[in-house]
Amino acid sequence: MSNLEPITITDLEHTVSQCNRCSLSKSRNCTVPGEGNYDAQVMVIGEAPGSNEDKTGRPFAGRAGNLLNELLDSVGIKRPQIYITNMLKCRPPSNRDPQQSEIDSCNPYLDLQISLIKPSVIITLGRFSFSKFLPNIPLSKARGVVSEWNGIKILPIYHPAAALYNPSLKPKLLQDFQKITSLISMDEPVVFEQSQIIPATQLSLFDDHFE
Ligand code: SF4
Q1: What is the pTM of this model?
Q2: How far is the CA of 209 from the centre of ligand 1 (A)?
Q3: Which domain holds residue 196?
Q4: CA distance 163 to 119
Q5: d(CA 38, CA 64)
Q6: I need a labelling partner for 171 at 20 to 30 A (CA). Which of 6, 27, 140, 184 fits?
Q7: Which atom in ligand 1 lies closest to the alpha carbon of residue 33?
Q8: How many Å apart are CA 3 and CA 206, to the nearest integer?
Protein backbone atom coordinates (compact mmCIF):
# COMPACT_ATOMS: atom_id res chain seq x y z
CA MET A 1 0.00 0.00 0.00
CA SER A 2 2.80 2.42 0.81
CA ASN A 3 3.85 2.59 -2.85
CA LEU A 4 0.32 3.40 -4.04
CA GLU A 5 -0.86 6.41 -2.05
CA PRO A 6 -3.19 7.99 -4.63
CA ILE A 7 -5.40 10.56 -2.93
CA THR A 8 -8.12 10.90 -5.56
CA ILE A 9 -9.81 8.48 -7.93
CA THR A 10 -8.01 10.21 -10.78
CA ASP A 11 -4.67 9.60 -9.06
CA LEU A 12 -5.64 5.99 -8.56
CA GLU A 13 -6.59 5.55 -12.22
CA HIS A 14 -3.23 7.00 -13.25
CA THR A 15 -1.42 4.66 -10.86
CA VAL A 16 -3.35 1.68 -12.22
CA SER A 17 -2.44 2.68 -15.80
CA GLN A 18 1.24 2.16 -14.92
CA CYS A 19 0.83 -0.84 -12.63
CA ASN A 20 2.95 -3.94 -12.96
CA ARG A 21 2.17 -5.51 -9.60
CA CYS A 22 1.13 -8.77 -11.29
CA SER A 23 1.90 -10.57 -14.55
CA LEU A 24 -1.34 -9.41 -16.20
CA SER A 25 0.46 -6.15 -16.91
CA LYS A 26 2.42 -8.02 -19.60
CA SER A 27 -0.58 -9.16 -21.63
CA ARG A 28 -3.05 -6.30 -21.23
CA ASN A 29 -3.75 -3.66 -23.85
CA CYS A 30 -5.62 -1.21 -21.61
CA THR A 31 -6.01 -1.06 -17.88
CA VAL A 32 -9.66 -0.87 -16.81
CA PRO A 33 -9.73 0.94 -13.47
CA GLY A 34 -13.46 1.69 -13.39
CA GLU A 35 -15.80 4.49 -14.39
CA GLY A 36 -18.79 6.41 -13.18
CA ASN A 37 -19.83 8.80 -10.45
CA TYR A 38 -17.03 9.43 -7.94
CA ASP A 39 -19.70 10.30 -5.33
CA ALA A 40 -21.89 7.32 -6.10
CA GLN A 41 -24.14 5.75 -3.48
CA VAL A 42 -23.91 2.48 -5.39
CA MET A 43 -20.71 0.73 -6.47
CA VAL A 44 -20.89 -2.30 -8.76
CA ILE A 45 -17.94 -4.71 -8.62
CA GLY A 46 -17.49 -7.38 -11.26
CA GLU A 47 -14.74 -9.90 -11.88
CA ALA A 48 -12.19 -8.76 -14.47
CA PRO A 49 -12.02 -7.03 -17.84
CA GLY A 50 -12.82 -9.07 -20.92
CA SER A 51 -11.81 -8.57 -24.54
CA ASN A 52 -13.94 -5.48 -25.19
CA GLU A 53 -12.92 -3.91 -21.91
CA ASP A 54 -9.25 -4.58 -22.65
CA LYS A 55 -9.65 -2.78 -25.98
CA THR A 56 -11.60 0.20 -24.69
CA GLY A 57 -10.42 0.64 -21.09
CA ARG A 58 -14.07 0.71 -19.98
CA PRO A 59 -15.67 -1.82 -17.61
CA PHE A 60 -18.65 -3.87 -18.81
CA ALA A 61 -18.28 -2.69 -22.41
CA GLY A 62 -19.46 -5.86 -24.17
CA ARG A 63 -22.55 -8.09 -24.15
CA ALA A 64 -22.46 -8.54 -20.39
CA GLY A 65 -22.31 -4.75 -20.12
CA ASN A 66 -25.38 -4.41 -22.32
CA LEU A 67 -27.24 -6.79 -20.03
CA LEU A 68 -25.98 -4.87 -16.98
CA ASN A 69 -27.37 -1.68 -18.54
CA GLU A 70 -30.71 -3.44 -19.08
CA LEU A 71 -30.77 -4.64 -15.47
CA LEU A 72 -29.96 -1.17 -14.18
CA ASP A 73 -32.65 0.31 -16.44
CA SER A 74 -35.16 -2.12 -14.95
CA VAL A 75 -34.75 -0.37 -11.60
CA GLY A 76 -34.47 3.15 -13.01
CA ILE A 77 -30.71 3.55 -12.59
CA LYS A 78 -28.39 4.92 -15.27
CA ARG A 79 -24.70 4.03 -15.39
CA PRO A 80 -23.45 7.61 -14.81
CA GLN A 81 -25.22 7.57 -11.43
CA ILE A 82 -23.12 4.71 -10.09
CA TYR A 83 -19.48 3.62 -10.08
CA ILE A 84 -18.52 0.38 -11.83
CA THR A 85 -15.27 -1.48 -11.43
CA ASN A 86 -13.84 -4.99 -11.23
CA MET A 87 -11.76 -7.06 -8.85
CA LEU A 88 -8.94 -7.02 -11.40
CA LYS A 89 -8.07 -3.97 -13.47
CA CYS A 90 -6.35 -5.97 -16.26
CA ARG A 91 -7.70 -8.76 -18.45
CA PRO A 92 -6.68 -12.34 -17.66
CA PRO A 93 -5.56 -14.10 -20.86
CA SER A 94 -8.40 -15.87 -22.71
CA ASN A 95 -10.80 -14.62 -20.02
CA ARG A 96 -9.64 -17.29 -17.58
CA ASP A 97 -10.62 -17.03 -13.93
CA PRO A 98 -8.59 -14.60 -11.81
CA GLN A 99 -5.83 -16.22 -9.78
CA GLN A 100 -5.69 -15.58 -6.06
CA SER A 101 -2.25 -13.96 -6.37
CA GLU A 102 -3.67 -11.52 -8.95
CA ILE A 103 -6.64 -10.72 -6.72
CA ASP A 104 -4.28 -10.10 -3.80
CA SER A 105 -2.06 -7.84 -5.91
CA CYS A 106 -4.98 -5.79 -7.23
CA ASN A 107 -7.06 -5.68 -4.06
CA PRO A 108 -5.42 -2.49 -2.65
CA TYR A 109 -6.80 -0.55 -5.61
CA LEU A 110 -10.31 -1.79 -4.92
CA ASP A 111 -10.01 -1.00 -1.23
CA LEU A 112 -8.87 2.51 -2.11
CA GLN A 113 -11.75 2.97 -4.53
CA ILE A 114 -14.19 1.94 -1.81
CA SER A 115 -12.58 4.26 0.75
CA LEU A 116 -12.52 7.21 -1.66
CA ILE A 117 -16.02 6.80 -3.13
CA LYS A 118 -17.62 5.72 0.16
CA PRO A 119 -20.62 3.93 -1.37
CA SER A 120 -23.63 3.09 0.77
CA VAL A 121 -24.31 -0.04 -1.24
CA ILE A 122 -21.97 -2.43 -3.04
CA ILE A 123 -23.43 -4.82 -5.61
CA THR A 124 -21.13 -7.75 -6.24
CA LEU A 125 -21.50 -9.46 -9.62
CA GLY A 126 -20.31 -13.04 -9.63
CA ARG A 127 -18.47 -15.21 -7.15
CA PHE A 128 -15.07 -13.52 -7.16
CA SER A 129 -16.24 -10.10 -5.98
CA PHE A 130 -18.73 -11.75 -3.64
CA SER A 131 -15.90 -13.75 -2.06
CA LYS A 132 -14.03 -10.58 -1.12
CA PHE A 133 -16.82 -9.62 1.26
CA LEU A 134 -18.34 -12.97 2.22
CA PRO A 135 -15.77 -15.73 1.81
CA ASN A 136 -16.73 -19.36 2.27
CA ILE A 137 -20.43 -18.87 1.52
CA PRO A 138 -21.89 -20.25 -1.75
CA LEU A 139 -23.15 -17.45 -3.97
CA SER A 140 -26.14 -19.63 -4.86
CA LYS A 141 -27.27 -19.33 -1.23
CA ALA A 142 -26.37 -15.70 -0.54
CA ARG A 143 -27.50 -14.08 -3.80
CA GLY A 144 -30.12 -11.42 -3.28
CA VAL A 145 -29.58 -11.28 0.48
CA VAL A 146 -28.33 -7.98 1.91
CA SER A 147 -25.52 -8.11 4.43
CA GLU A 148 -23.11 -5.59 5.94
CA TRP A 149 -19.36 -5.07 5.51
CA ASN A 150 -17.67 -2.20 7.30
CA GLY A 151 -21.00 -0.39 7.46
CA ILE A 152 -21.65 -0.82 3.72
CA LYS A 153 -24.65 -2.82 2.52
CA ILE A 154 -23.53 -5.70 0.31
CA LEU A 155 -25.96 -7.14 -2.26
CA PRO A 156 -24.56 -10.25 -4.03
CA ILE A 157 -25.92 -10.99 -7.50
CA TYR A 158 -24.95 -13.42 -10.24
CA HIS A 159 -22.64 -12.04 -12.93
CA PRO A 160 -24.59 -10.90 -16.02
CA ALA A 161 -22.24 -12.99 -18.18
CA ALA A 162 -23.65 -16.09 -16.47
CA ALA A 163 -27.10 -15.23 -17.83
CA LEU A 164 -25.67 -14.94 -21.34
CA TYR A 165 -24.58 -18.58 -21.13
CA ASN A 166 -27.59 -19.71 -19.09
CA PRO A 167 -30.67 -17.58 -19.90
CA SER A 168 -32.66 -19.25 -17.11
CA LEU A 169 -30.64 -17.10 -14.68
CA LYS A 170 -31.94 -13.83 -16.11
CA PRO A 171 -35.20 -13.80 -14.07
CA LYS A 172 -33.08 -14.26 -10.92
CA LEU A 173 -30.91 -11.31 -11.93
CA LEU A 174 -33.99 -9.15 -12.55
CA GLN A 175 -35.44 -10.26 -9.21
CA ASP A 176 -32.24 -9.47 -7.31
CA PHE A 177 -31.77 -6.09 -8.98
CA GLN A 178 -35.24 -5.10 -7.75
CA LYS A 179 -33.79 -5.21 -4.22
CA ILE A 180 -31.57 -2.24 -5.01
CA THR A 181 -34.59 0.03 -4.96
CA SER A 182 -35.40 -0.98 -1.39
CA LEU A 183 -31.86 0.01 -0.34
CA ILE A 184 -31.44 3.33 -2.05
CA SER A 185 -33.18 6.14 -3.79
CA MET A 186 -30.99 8.01 -6.23
CA ASP A 187 -32.67 11.30 -5.25
CA GLU A 188 -33.55 10.74 -1.62
CA PRO A 189 -31.42 9.98 1.46
CA VAL A 190 -30.54 6.34 1.83
CA VAL A 191 -33.33 4.29 3.39
CA PHE A 192 -32.59 0.79 4.58
CA GLU A 193 -35.10 -1.88 5.42
CA GLN A 194 -33.49 -3.16 8.58
CA SER A 195 -35.34 -6.46 8.44
CA GLN A 196 -33.43 -7.32 5.25
CA ILE A 197 -30.00 -6.73 6.73
CA ILE A 198 -28.05 -9.67 8.05
CA PRO A 199 -24.59 -9.11 9.56
CA ALA A 200 -22.04 -10.80 7.33
CA THR A 201 -20.61 -12.64 10.32
CA GLN A 202 -23.95 -14.37 10.82
CA LEU A 203 -24.66 -15.34 7.22
CA SER A 204 -23.39 -18.87 7.57
CA LEU A 205 -25.75 -19.34 10.52
CA PHE A 206 -28.79 -18.57 8.41
CA ASP A 207 -28.78 -21.27 5.77
CA ASP A 208 -32.54 -21.76 6.10
CA HIS A 209 -33.04 -18.11 5.24
CA PHE A 210 -31.56 -18.63 1.78
CA GLU A 211 -33.55 -21.66 0.71
S1 SF4 B 1 -4.41 -6.66 -12.52
FE2 SF4 B 1 -4.20 -5.07 -10.96
S3 SF4 B 1 -2.31 -5.62 -9.85
FE4 SF4 B 1 -2.27 -6.74 -11.81
S5 SF4 B 1 -1.11 -5.39 -13.20
FE6 SF4 B 1 -3.32 -4.91 -13.46
S7 SF4 B 1 -3.70 -3.18 -12.09
FE8 SF4 B 1 -1.75 -4.12 -11.45
Answers
A1: 0.86
A2: 37
A3: 9-203
A4: 26
A5: 23
A6: 184
A7: 7
A8: 40
- The answer as to whether 52 is a domain residue is yes
What length is written for the chain?
211
Ligand 1, from 106, 110, 113: best to mutate by most atoms within 8 Å of Cβ? 106
C-beta separation of 156 from 130 below 8 A = yes
3-state secondary structure of 148: strand
Q: Does pLDDT of 82 surpass 80?
A: yes
pLDDT digits (tens, 9 = 90+) for 127-182: 999 999 988 888 988 999 999 999 999 999 999 999 999 999 999 999 999 999 88
Q: Which CATH number fits the domain that encloses residue 54?
A: 3.40.470.10
- Domain membership of residue 17 (yes or no) is yes
Is residue 141 a contact partner of residue 210, using CB atoms and an 8 Å limit?
yes
d(CA 80, CA 85): 13
Pairwise CA distance, residues 209 & 1, whole Å: 38
Q: How many CB atoms lie within 10 A of CB 156?
A: 26
Report the number of distinct structural domains present in the chain. 1
> What are phi and psi for residue 76, nearest 5 degrees?
75, 25
Q: Does residue 193 sit within a domain?
A: yes
The yes-or-no verdict on residue 186 having pLDDT over 90 is: no
Distance CA 54, CA 39 (A): 25
Mutate which of 17, 45, 90 to test ligand 1's pocket (most atoms within 8 Å of Cβ)? 90
The predicted pLDDT at position 143 comes to 92
Look at residue 208 and tell me if it is in a domain.
Answer: no
